[in-house]
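Running co-folding for adenosine-5'-triphosphate.
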Amino acid sequence: MLEVGALNGWYGPAHILSDVDLDVGTGDVVALLGRNGAGKSTTFKAIVGLLGKRTGHIVFDGRDVSTASTHAIVRAGLGYVPEDRRIFTELSVMENLEVGRQPPRADAPTWTPDRLFALFPNLAEMRNRLGGRMSGGEQQMLTIARTLMGNPRLVLLDEPSEGLAPKIVEEMAHAILAMKREGLSIVISEQNLHFARLICDRAVILESGRVRFSGTIAELEARPEIRDAYLAL
Ligand SMILES: Nc1ncnc2c1ncn2[C@@H]1O[C@H](COP(=O)(O)OP(=O)(O)OP(=O)(O)O)[C@@H](O)[C@H]1O
């Protein structure tokens, strides 16, 4: 579904990503792990064409999008949920969802507000509430739900559990597992293993913009020295 090879990325003169490889099969849930500043968000930005300069190859759904615009990549079915929750604070939950609506896509689950309310039950209870009057966790769920309204085949979720209360983290994990059951491919960036081990099949660890580990979650759990060297506790 997504094949990223030898990805390099820059912010101005600063060379941030060095030869990052990342493969995601159909229906896979992959964790992109690493401490603060390791390059996780930059990797996502590079994949969706939001970085000033990038090199390497990115093949999405059999199509080379290495030099495609963000608009074209999203239109091709790649959804991106950035770390900062970009909801429309002056619009209601329902209106925020409508903003994300795209036509159904072959080979991807088709989402409607009702289906999304089943996935995120607490959003259903506040469908007329303004985005600006929701908690951080609710806004995070709304951002994911709005991205799903575009009926993507793969989603990149940048630190979906960050700053959430434990109960909300659990709800988020259930929602992501339900997305996986629908056949979506998912990449989740996280600083530690706690959340990732609940939902992910495989992990890729970044440090200083380089891949330091790539394997299954079970393989990673058997290597505590890797976890200690590269992950937040
Ligand atoms: N706009 C920018 N301009 C210059 N350097 C940047 C910019 N954004 C990030 N960086 C640098 O790029 C490196 C990777 O940052 P990135 O945000 O990708 O890390 P991350 O793994 O996502 O961490 P975090 O958990 O903090 O989001 C860091 O050294 C950071 O300081």
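Result summary
The first strand starts at residue 2 and ends at 11.
The radius of gyration is 17 Å.
Job closed.
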